[in-house]
Design brief:
Length: 334
C-alpha cells in the first residue's frame, strides 16, 4: 500500500514519509561497504522511497561517496531522490571537536559534499550542530546565503530547541529540523513537534527505531561494544542494555500479534504523530530495510496507539540517550 507523500518544508518537494538515513553507509553501526549501500538505495528506489539524508562527517565523506557513485551510475536517480546533507562539526587548531556555523565553513563543506555526490545542489542543507559562538540568526543567514547562491534549495537545523527554531524561522524559512524521535526518545513532544507543526516545518525523525532496540533483532551486546558510536551510549551499557531488551519484548510481541515487524510498527507510530513528520531509519541490510515497509500496511487508530502505550509507556527506557560526550552540541530544552 502506497503511503501519502508529505511536504519537506512548507511548499517544498513532496517526499515519501519513510526516508533513508545514510549514517549507516559508513561504519558507525558496524562494517559495511559501497555495494551494500547501493543495494539499499536500489531497493529504496524500487519501493518508492524518495528521500535520503547524509552528512559530511559520516565516514568522513564515505556516505556521500556511496551516494555519489550510485547516482552517477544511474542518472535518473538524482531526479528520483531528494538529498539532504549537513555540516558544522569540525576540529579546532588543537584537533579538538568543535562546531562551526560560519558562512565560510558551511560553503566550503557543502562544496566538498556536492563534489562527492556529483550534484549541483542539495535539496536540503542542515547546520549539524549549533555553534555557541554564533547567534542562531547569524547562522541562519549564513545558511540562507547558500540558497541564494543556488547550492541548496532549502535549509534546516539538527537537534535545536523550539525557541531557537522560532528565532531562525524569523530570519529565513526553515524547511526541516532533524531530531531523534521514537518510542524511546519522546522529548520532542515537549515543544518541538508542536512548534514545527505551527511554523510549517518538517520534523525529520532520526533513529526512529531506537538504534535497533525497537526492532525484532536488536544489536547484540558484543556487536554494540564493537562500535565506536554506541559503545559509550548509556542505553547500550549494562545493566541498562539488558533492561532495555527486556522492556521491549512486549513491543515485539505486540507487533507479531498485529502481523508486522517491530520496525514497521515503530515507524508507523512515529509517522502517526503528525502529517509534518517524516522518519529516516538507517540500515546496512536490504532485508532489514524491507521490514520498514511494513509501516505502509498499518493504520494506527486510538486502540492500536493505546496498546503501544501500554507495552512501552512514556519513560520506559533505561539510561540517557547520549553519553556526556555525545551531549556536546544538541540543545537541551526540557
Amino acid at each position: 500500500m502506497a503511503m501519502k507523500m508529505r511536504e519537506l518544508g512548507q511548499g517544498g518537494p513532496r517526499v515519501h514519509p519513510i526516508g533513508i538515513g545514510a549514517m549507516s553507509f559508513s561504519d558507525f553501526y558496524g562494517p559495511t561497504d559501497e555495494a551494500a549501500s547501493h543495494a539499499i538505495l536500489k531497493a529504496a528506489a524500487e519501493a518508492g522511497i524518495t528521500h535520503m539524508d547524509t552528512a559530511n562527517v559520516y565516514g568522513m565523506g564515505a556516505s556521500e561517496d556511496a551516494i555519489g557513485s550510485f547516482v552517477k551510475a544511474r542518472p535518473g536517480m538524482r531526479d528520483h531522490f531528494t538529498i539532504a546533507t549537513k555540516a558544522a562539526i569540525a576540529r579546532d587548531a588543537g584537533g579538538n571537536r568543535c562546531f562551526d556555523n560560519s558562512a565560510a565553513h558551511f560553503e566550503a563543506e557543502l562544496d566538498k559534499s556536492l563534489r562527492r555526490m556529483g550534484v549541483d545542489c542539495v535539496d536540503l542543507f542542515y547546520a549539524h550542530r549549533r555553534d555557541p559562538g554564533i547567534s542562531i540568526e547569524e547562522a541562519t543567514g549564513n545558511l540562507a546565503g547558500l540558497v541564494q547562491k543556488g547550492k541548496a534549495k532549502s535549509i534546516g537545523f539538527s537537534e535545536i530547541a523550539p525557541s531557537s527554531l522560532r528565532r531562525a524561522h524569523a530570519v529565513h524559512p526553515i524547511a526541516a529540523v532533524q531530531s531523534e524521535y521514537s518510542l524511546s526518545a519522546r522529548y520532542p513532544e515537549l515543544g518541538l513537534v508542536q512548534t514545527c507543526a505551527e511554523l510549517g516545518v518538517t520534523l525529520v525523525a532520526f533513529s526512529p527505531l531506537g538504534r535497533s532496540l525497537l526492532t525484532d533483532n536488536p544489536l547484540g551486546y558484543d556487536a554494540v561494544q564493537a562500535t565506536g558510536f554506541l559503545a559509550p551510549n548509556p542505553r547500550f551499557n549494562e545493566p541498562n542494555y539488558s533492561a532495555n531488551i527486556a522492556a521491549t519484548e512486549g513491543f515485539r510481541g505486540l507487533a507479531a500479534h498485529m502481523g508486522v515487524s517491530a520496525a514497521g510498527l515503530a515507524l508507523a507510530w512515529v509517522l502517526a504523530q503528525g502529517e509534518h513528520v517524516v522518519a529516516i531509519p538507517g540500515t546496512r541490510s536490504v532485508a532489514h530495510f524491507r521490514e520498514y515497509l511494513d509501516a505502509q500496511r498499518i493504520d494506527l487508530g486510538p486502540q492500536e496507539l493505546a496498546a503501544i502505550d501500554r507495552v512501552l509507556p512514556v519513560g520506559w527506557a533505561h539510561g540517557d540517550r547520549y553519553s556526556e560526550g555525545q551531549w556536546d552540541g544538541p540543545e537541551k530544552y526540557c
